[in-house]
Design brief:
Blueprint lengths: L7 H18 L6 H12 L8 H8 L3 H13 L3 E3 L5 E3 L1 H12 L2 H17 L2 E8 L2 E8 L14 E3 L4 H9 L2 H8 L9 H13 L2 E2 L8 E9 L5 E10 L5 H23 L21
Antiparallel strand pairs: 1-2, 3-4, 3-8, 4-5, 6-7, 7-8
Helix pairs in contact: 2-3, 2-4, 3-4, 6-10, 7-9
């Protein structure tokens, strides 16, 4: 009995089916709303006003597309033209952000604790939450005197950059932490990072003693919900000479205690919205 031979039409049908399956497996192309959200997110980054070229590079969109979206956002009050053809967040966006933060249980609970930490240490005290692979500082209490640091509400940093990320990663499940620790190239975290995570899990706070920011250091402890899941971090930040190893040993228990107080307050408040923690299994598609 001879071998069955696929006809040309069968081969074409098979190839078409494979092509369709490959197309189906691809993520959907970004639509107008996705592009507008990308521009809005880039616009809200620190360092405003932002030039058109910088926004295009940050979003990966063509300049004409970015310019068209900026004009639409400006017409709605979400963006505002600035000098030299640049743009900054508009009053409507600022009003929305202020309204959300004012009504957020976590930031309200964290406020008095941050103020106490600021007064007792003379350092920057902030509350940050996770947004996919980044951390966003929502509330920042700056010291009345001392060197200025580029840390303000809306400041973003990688979840693997320093103490804030270490504190959050150490409080996550091993599986979730591993997902975030694995680089975009599939490379695992180095041994120094894993050792730092072990120490952070043991102590209940993290200290970026490796001087991740070069000129500054940070100390952080996780804030948890009633089920023990990390929903944010309390962070102390200062110049390297003001936050050394000795200061970390002194301030670490204070930050840990403050985070525990915020956690207890949130757990006792039914229905509290506890942050922007994203599911690591659901990528946002945003560039980092």
């Amino acid at each position: 009995m001879g071998k069955p031979v696929n006809s040309r039409s069968q081969q074409q049908t098979s190839a078409t089916a494979l092509d369709e399956a490959a197309v189906t497996a691809l993520p959907p192309a970004p639509g107008p709303v996705d592009k507008a959200m990308e521009v809005l997110s880039a616009l809200a980054e620190t360092g405003a006003p932002h030039r058109l070229a910088d926004l295009a590079r940050h979003t990966g969109l063509a300049k004409p597309t970015v310019h068209r979206l900026l004009r639409a956002l400006a017409a709605s009050g979400y963006a505002e033209p600035a000098e030299g053809g640049s743009y900054r967040p508009g009053p409507r966006l600022l009003g929305l952000a202020a309204g959300v933060l004012a009504d957020d249980a976590a930031t309200r609970r964290a406020g008095p604790v941050l103020e106490e930490l600021r007064i007792r240490t003379g350092l920057f005290a902030s509350y940050a939450v996770r947004d996919d692979r980044a951390l966003v500082h929502l509330r920042v209490h700056a010291p009345a005197q001392g060197p200025a640091l580029d840390l303000r509400p809306g400041t973003r940093e990688s979840v693997t950059a320093g103490a804030a990320g270490l504190a959050l990663l150490a409080a996550l499940s091993a599986e979730d932490a591993e997902t975030l620790l694995t680089g975009s190239d599939g490379a695992p975290a180095d041994e120094a990072t894993r050792t730092a995570l072990t120490v952070a899990a043991r102590d209940g706070y993290a200290f970026d003693s490796a001087d991740a920011w070069r000129d500054r250091r940070a100390l952080a402890a996780p804030v948890r919900d009633a089920a023990g899941r990390p929903v944010g971090v309390l962070v102390l930040t200062g110049l390297a000479f003001t936050l050394d190893e000795a200061a970390a040993r002194l301030y670490g228990p204070m930050v840990r205690s403050g985070a525990a107080a915020v956690s207890a307050g949130l757990a006792a408040q039914p229905g509290a919205r506890l942050g922007l923690v994203a599911d690591p299994d659901q990528g946002t598609g945003r560039k980092r």
